[in-house]
Design goal:
The chain is mostly helical. It has 10 helices and 3 strands; from the N terminus they run βααβαααβααααα. It has helices at about 20-50, 60-85, 95-130, 135, 140-165, 180-185, 195-230, 230-260, 270-295, 295-310; strands spanning about 10-15, 90-95, 175. The chain is globular and about 65 Å long.
Length: about 300
Amino acid sequence: MSVIKTNFTVTEFVFLGLSSQPKVQLILFIIFLFFYLLTVAGNIIIITIIQIEPHLQTPMYFFLTNLSFLDICYTSTNVPQMLSNMVGKEKTISFSRCAAQMYFSLSFGMIECVLLGVMAYDRYVAICHPLHYTIIMNQNTCVQMAAISWSSSFLSSMIINVLTFSLPYCGPNVLNHFFCEVPSVLRLACTDTSFTEMVVFIFSIIIVFIPFMLIVVSYAQILLSVLRMRSASGRHKALSTCASHLTVVALFYGTAIFMYMRPQSKSSRAGGKIIAVFYTVITPMLNPLIYSLRNQDVKGALRRAIAKQKT
């Protein structure tokens, strides 16, 4: 494993990963492989259940299907590379592959931010304007919202990626991370990165903070609407449909905002890697568990699907 010397053009990056100790790396490999398989299997099950259950063909579960597919893509962008580095001798990635990994990882992360905001708006319409729900959240509207979430995030990520990899990288080439992420790559640039960091921060506000504010406003309205309900069962039903989404929001946004919306000079490199593990590995794994354990409709659909397999 060689490190490219200063004043040479960087053609590859070297990952330090989560640990340099072989025994620790083996343990982490087993743990994260299990997490990855659980993530893929869990999200495939959620997608399958939604597709085969007619009563789950609603806007809420249309967006949940998008979220589950997104989580598979998101974790598959980073985790296989991390697993390979843990057991392989070569812990390098080419410059072009690093750029591709960053682009897709950033894109999928941005999509999740926007999609969680859209899902909050869906819950707002369902609870605060139930009589107009089917009119407002019709099929065309849902498809358009999903398309905007995906396309705007891919475009935003492209801008950040181009700015990041247009900078000169002349050494060193050691990434103190387990995948190519914007803050860790920018630290290796051989020039002032303040402009690129400012652009990243601006896009963080647009893609992360604005959807987060939409979530806050939506749930503030939902809470006011629930408090006006006279029936205790009605309040419980309304809140139960939001519980899973709120849990996912807290897990994903809590770590993403802490990582991207703070000055880079104050960021701890070791702490950054731990935070990154949460939103690239832990959250995608927990999402299907949260939606299956906290959502009565999904649990009922799972029970019916299992019962059909037994008969």
